[in-house]
Design goal:
Helices cover 62% and strands 0% of the residues. By secondary structure, it is mainly alpha-helical.
C-alpha cells in the first residue's frame, strides 16, 4: 500500500499500488511471482494473468463500494 502521497504520480490511477498488491497476492497464492509470469507465454500463464487481473479488479471494486457506503452512511454524499 502507498504510505505517502509523494509515492503516487500525478496521473497515476489512485488505486494502482493497491491493485498491484492484489495482483501479486493472487499470483503468490498460486505459487508464481509476477517476474516468473512475465517470462512465460504459454496458455496457462495467460489464464493465470487473466485470473489475477480479475481478482485485483474485483477487490478494488469492493474497496470502492465500501468507501462509497461509508461516505453515504456518514452523510458525506452529494445528492447521489
Amino acid at each position: 500500500m502507498v504510505d505517502r502521497l509523494d509515492d503516487v504520480h500525478p496521473m497515476e490511477d489512485p488505486h494502482s499500488a493497491l491493485r498491484r498488491q492484489y495482483f501479486e497476492e493472487y499470483l503468490r497464492n498460486s505459487g508464481v511471482s509476477a517476474q516468473q509470469l512475465s517470462s512465460r507465454t504459454d496458455e496457462d500463464a495467460r489464464k493465470l494473468l487473466a485470473e489475477a487481473t480479475d481478482f485485483a479488479t474485483r477487490r478494488i471494486t469492493e474497496v470502492d463500494c465500501r468507501a462509497h457506503h461509508a461516505r453515504h452512511v456518514k452523510g458525506f454524499h452529494k445528492n447521489e
